Amino acid sequence: MNAIIAEGLTKTFGSGEKAVKAVSGVDLSVDEGTVVGILGPNGAGKTTTVRMLTTLLPLDSGRATVAGHDVVREPQAVRASIGLSGQFAAVDENLTGRENLWMFGRLYQLSSKEAKKRADELLEQFSLTDAADRPSKTYSGGMRRRLDLAGSLVIHPRVLFLDEPTTGLDPASRLDLWDVIRERVSGGATILLTTQYLEEADVLADRIVVIDQGRIIAEGTADELKAKVGGERIEVVVHDPDMLHRATEILQRGSGGQCQVDEHTRRLTVPSTAGSKGLVQVIRDLDEQQVDIDDIALRRPTLDDVFLELTGHKAEEKETKDDQQSADSVATQGGAK
């Protein structure tokens, strides 16, 4: 059964020549008890899609249901069935962790006693008990993220929306949050996760939807998407930057694809269908041409390769106009967590 269904979602900000189409005909389905990752760079339309599905933004066209409720006709029922954790922790810095969670419970119309009990449970679950009575402005970024996610779980939501939940976190805090997400999944939650971190989508999602410029351009499991690129990759890190051009020519010679060059890291990447034999041949050719290398490896394609192949650019951060307009629109409308 589908926990989320979206058909033909569109959203445009502005009008006339200044109009920006943030989402253009998105179709999406998420089975109950699964994690679907929406993968794409800033400006791709991920956040705008989530805000429409969570009733924070009106749809221009299309239809969507969440937990069996129509987002246009039954917005209150949708809000009562979901949890939402956005890109920025939505906590009151002047309140303690305990007070924040109590407040979220009251907003969800729990009694004061029920809200207090639920706050205590979540503080323990998210390892925040020791800091429960400190103002949240004293929390680290990872702690605020955990508090924000705890707030989205006050009512045991059937469907949880996580909009780039690990943005800005250090690696250790990101891994901690991944563990929390896995716990929710093991408990039967349905999760829609947006991310620009390729590794995050690979690790957490049962199925991945790749979105770029407001359109879905591919979807499937991580392995299915990687199979679209096919073959393996030879990666070489050249010791001398002046030898990059010569090394590129060598790698390009025996490859069926374009050699990618990162001048900053001196890293060259090229498709290979010859496996270990191709790797050995590249080593020989580089040695004959006296190109010293710091590292060389043969690896399977990654989601980064998939994204580059599909879009022609990397899944890198790039703030664009529709991000700001979407944020401004939500700010003017308000809305609860």
UniProtKB/TrEMBL annotation:
Superkingdom of origin: Bacteria
Looking at the record, the residues that make up the ABC transporter domain are 4-238
Membrane topology, from the record: Peripheral membrane protein
List, alphabetically, the InterPro entries matched.
AAA+_ATPase, ABC_transporter-like_ATP-bd, ABC_transporter-like_CS, ABC_transporter_ATP-binding, DrrA, DrrA1/2-like_C, P-loop_NTPase
Annotated GO MF terms: ATP binding; ATP hydrolysis activity
Name the segments for region: Disordered. 313-337
The biased composition feature labelled Polar residues covers 326-337
SUPFAM superfamilies, sorted: P-loop containing nucleoside triphosphate hydrolases (SSF52540)
Q: Which UniProt keywords apply?
A: Antibiotic resistance, ATP-binding, Cell membrane, Membrane, Nucleotide-binding, Translocase, Transport
Compartments (UniProt record): Cell membrane
Please list the residue ranges that the record marks as compositionally biased, kind Basic and acidic residues: 313-324
* UniProt main location, coarse: membrane
Please cite one Gene Ontology biological process associated with this protein: doxorubicin transport
- Which Gene Ontology cellular-component terms appear in the entry? plasma membrane
Q: Which residues form the signal peptide?
A: none
Entry's family note: Belongs to the ABC transporter superfamily. Drug exporter-1 (DrugE1) (TC 3.A.1.105) family.
Identify this protein by name: ATP-binding cassette domain-containing protein
Question: Lineage, please?
Answer: Bacteria, Bacillati, Actinomycetota, Actinomycetes, Jiangellales
